[in-house]
Structures are given as C-alpha cells and as structure tokens.
Design brief:
Layout (H helix, E strand, L loop, with lengths): L2 E3 L4 H7 L5 E2 L25 E2 L4 H4 L29 E5 L5 H18 L5 E4 L7 E4 L15 E12 L2 E12 L6 H14 L26 H10 L3 E2 L4
Parallel strand pairs: 4-5, 4-6, 6-8
Antiparallel strand pairs: 1-7, 2-7, 3-9, 7-8
Length: 241
C-alpha cells in the first residue's frame, strides 16, 4: 500500500486546512506545525460525503435530552475528523520506567474502554499500524505557547492507495504529559482521545469531558459528549473517500 503524505505548504493550506493541528486542556489557538520531506496530496479527491453512522452511535439514545455542543466543533476545511474504517486501532505506549508503566497503562486502557462503548476501538501492539497513538510524553513545544500543557492531540493527513483509488486518510498522536498523576491522567486521556475520535472543539460546560480546561473533579463521558460525537459522525467529510 503506497502512501502520500500532505505537504505542509501555504498553497495546500488554502485548500485543505491545517495538516497538523492541536488541542490541549488549556485554551490556545490551533497552530501550524511545519513538516518536511512530504509529497503533495493528489488533487483528484472527491467532494465531502457522509459515511454510514457506526452502529454503536446509531443505537445511542439520550434519554435525558441533554443537548450537545456541536456548534463549538470547528472542523478543518476538508471536513470533520471522523473515522470510517473500524475498529479504530489504538496504540498505547508503555513507558520505559517499569515502576510507572503498569499504573499509567492501566489508566489509559480504562479510558480507551470508556470511549469504546460508543465507537469500536482495538488496542494494537504496533505504533506503525495504529490510527491513534497515545504517548506518555510532554506535548511538543509550540511557537508562541508558553504555558505547560496537560495533553495534546495532533493529526496528520496522508493519501493511501486502495486498489485503483486514492483515499484521503489521517492519523492521530495523543501526547499525555508525564507529570500528570492520579485521576488527572484519566481526565487528560479522556479529553484528548475525545478529540482524536472526532470532536474537534471544546465544550463550555464543566460537566463535559471536552470542557476547555482541566477541573478539580474530572467528569466521566457525558451524554452531551456522546450527542456531540454522534452529530460529528453524521457530517460530510473528505476523509475515507
């Protein structure tokens, strides 16, 4: 399977949006991240289309009528960052320090299982084949961002050859700051994985996982989080086509 990654140049940003963007648990704007040695994305991609709704989300019903925060989701120019091939393969990095590895990995795997109620997720052993990599590393330094960040989710666009078709695809890397401890490990992982699964925006309510800032008592995944995720997966995108 041949791959063509998106070249991050101004001429492509105008048509495709940011090839690499990020969110974190503190408030800051999306940013460009330069990339090198990437070949151009083919210009023969189809118009945005709607994928079939994943069964888990199709069956989801909110008995509390809690609403959503879909109006806060701001997708890139090429469409919503949703997945169309399932299960979504997730790689969880195992820290070198064995004393910290077991507890950290267990916490992150718990979060993967939480989101796995709503979308089919599969934990894999290889980062090379993963759609989402969860890494126990400090988020990369960003120009103009001085504050320490709890976590960050970044994506990368690429085009893959599927038979006689070229399909626009993406990968996510989730960075979890190793300085996080206790319940905040789960809170950060829960938040950033929510971004990686497609919620490219923040809630304005503290009771939602995708609230824009860290809170003292981190909430579980809320009905509003799932309602928003479902609406995202009902939207058109170029990804997967």
């Amino acid at each position: 399977m041949r791959l063509w990654k998106v070249t991050v140049k101004s001429r492509l940003l105008a048509g495709l949006g940011l090839a690499l963007c990020c969110f974190s648990l503190i408030i800051f704007s999306q940013v460009n991240t330069p990339a090198a040695s990437l070949s151009p994305l083919p210009n023969s991609l189809p118009h945005p289309q709607v994928h079939p709704l994943p069964p888990m989300l199709a069956n989801w019903q909110d008995s509390t009528d809690s609403g959503d925060y879909f109006d806060q989701v701001k997708p890139p120019n090429f469409g919503h960052l949703l997945w169309s091939k399932f299960p979504i393969q997730v790689y969880v990095e195992r820290p070198v320090d064995a004393n910290k590895s077991e507890e950290w990995v267990a916490a992150v795997l718990d979060v993967v299982r939480e989101w796995g109620v709503y979308l089919p997720l599969e934990v894999v052993d290889s980062s090379e084949v993963a759609d989402i990599r969860i890494l126990r590393r400090a988020p990369p330094l960003r120009q103009g961002v001085l504050r320490s960040r709890s976590g960050e989710a970044t994506y990368e666009l690429y085009a893959r050859r599927d038979g006689d078709k070229t399909v626009l695809s993406h990968r996510f890397s989730v960075y979890l700051n190793p300085n996080q401890v206790g319940k905040y490990v789960r809170a950060t992982a829960r938040h950033e994985l929510g971004h990686a699964l497609g919620i490219w925006g923040h809630s304005l309510m503290e009771t939602d996982v995708l609230y824009f800032s860290q809170v003292r008592n981190p909430p579980p995944i809320s009905a509003r989080d799932v309602n928003t995720l479902k609406r995202v997966y009902e939207q058109p995108t170029r990804l997967g086509w």
